[in-house]
Specification:
- This protein has about 325 residues and is of the alpha/beta class.
- About 45% of the residues lie in helices and about 15% in strands.
- It has twelve helices and 13 strands.
- It has a seven-stranded parallel sheet with strand order 3-2-1-4-5-6-11, with helices on both faces. It has a two-stranded parallel ribbon with strand order 7-10. The chain has a two-stranded parallel ribbon with strand order 8-13.
- The longest helix has 22 residues, at about 95-115.
- Bound molecules: NADP nicotinamide-adenine-dinucleotide phosphate and guanosine-5'-diphosphate-alpha-D-mannose (GDD).
- Guanosine-5'-diphosphate-alpha-D-mannose binds near residues 180, 194, 213 and 219.
Length: about 325
């Protein structure tokens, strides 16, 4: 039985990936912060339904010895390094901890793998935020990086570390350059979930407005359960490498808002306001990915349309209010 280790197993992608790997017959291990084990009803909510099928290990991304110990105990065949401070806005507020978690954390995992299980296949969660102020549309694996946030810079550093461990030490490391992917399990601080949960509350008469920042920013939004399959496919490929995972379509925040209110037959203009507090010091104006390499080499393609994604999220939030 193959053993997989997932860092960030409590996050949106971690939960979907754990479920997917269980379905493939893997023994699934996850690294969590100690506080998560102390407050499982709150911090393990996304993996509640599979807790009896996976093994959790307390470790800190800030501590090399703790990561080393877990990897030594498990000796995984595949490692999916998803843990990160992933909220771009927060990275403007706390640059230093974002760097510590995202850069040192990645370095610790890579270094421990090199020492203990150099044959382990490693996945790094790269991001379309690395393209930032992109020079070309759509963006592919060759597009130059121009990050616009400390988060984006930290992901470029993680990308370079991961590539360098492959080139220097022969580790089988792959990098997913994933564009935004969403789901009913998305954190409430991200714009899509903020919108879908607010639309549900407004529809139920529990709220009467939604305050957002930049409505003009455009993103390439896909459906998260499909994106974790791409992570696995990357590690099944004998040739490690970099892969863009995206839908190839881009929509503005305003278009997402309009579509979400339309699901409940309301006009967004009656409820949506903007506030400069939600604008970022430097914005990524447009992201749109070209995933043709993933299609050709991995056979991966997105299946859920933008409209379907918005509907899935709004209907799930409505159901949560009206079980
Ligand atoms: P998420 O829901 O924010 O989950 C982040 C995970 O990282 C959580 O399990 C969190 O644990 C863990 N984590 C954060 N800081 C940590 C620390 N200091 N020590 C240990 N664990 C820590 O993110 P996601 O959407 O699943 O994304 C997964 C990965 O893909 C991230 O690296 C993200 O940057 C990257 N990515 C995401 C997208 C996207 O659109 N979702 C696109 C491109 C790349 P707690 O639960 O304990 O906080
Ligand atoms: N969060 C948030 N809240 N964003 C808002 C708001 C608001 O009230 N109003 C407008 N936006 C705009 C942001 O300025 C940004 O342009 C866009 O909505 C998307 O913001 P987020 O949902 O926070 O996601 P992100 O694109 O910054 O980052 C996500 O995708 C990256 C991949 O491109 C995260 O998942 C990152 O971890 C990931 O790497």
């Amino acid at each position: 039985m193959k053993k997989a280790l997932i860092t960030g197993i409590t996050g949106q992608d971690g939960g979907y990936l754990a479920e997917f790997l269980l379905g493939k017959g893997y023994q699934v291990h996850g690294i969590v912060r100690r506080v998560a084990l102390e407050a499982p009803e709150y911090r393990l909510v996304r993996i509640k339904s599979i807790l009896d099928k996976i093994q959790l290990h307390a470790a800190s991304l800030e501590s090399y010895p703790s990561i080393f110990k877990v990897i030594q105990n498990i000796k995984p065949d595949e490692c999916y390094h998803l843990a990160a401070q992933s909220f771009v806005s927060y990275s403007f507020e706390d640059e230093f901890s974002t760097f510590n978690t995202n850069i040192n954390g990645t370095h610790f995992v890579l270094s421990a793998i090199k020492e203990i299980v150099p044959e382990c296949r490693f996945y790094f969660a790269g991001s379309s935020e690395m393209f930032g102020q992109a020079e070309e549309i759509p963006q592919n694996e060759l597009t130059r990086f121009h990050p616009r946030s400390v988060y984006g810079i930290s992901k470029v550093a993680g990308y370079e570390l991961t590539r360098n461990y492959r080139e220097s030490y022969g580790l089988k490391t792959s990098i997913g350059i994933l564009f935004n992917h969403e789901s009913p399990r998305r954190g409430y601080e991200f714009v899509t979930r903020k919108i879908s949960s607010s639309v549900a509350r407004i529809k139920q008469g529990l709220s009467d407005k939604l305050v957002l920042g930049n409505l003009d920013a455009k993103r390439d939004w896909g459906y998260a359960p499909e994106y974790v399959q791409a992570m696995w496919l990357m590690l099944q490929n004998d040739e490690p490498g970099e892969f863009v995972i995206a839908t190839g379509e881009t929509y503005s925040v305003q278009e997402f808002v309009k579509e979400a209110f339309a699901v409940v037959d309301l006009d967004w203009k009656d409820y949506v306001h903007t506030d400069p507090q939600y604008y970022r010091p430097a914005e990524v104006n447009i992201l749109c990915g070209d995933a043709s390499k993933a299609k050709k080499i991995l056979g991966w393609e997105p299946r859920t349309s933008f409209r379907e994604l918005v509907r899935i999220m709004v209907e799930s939030d409505l159901k949560a209010l009206n079980p």
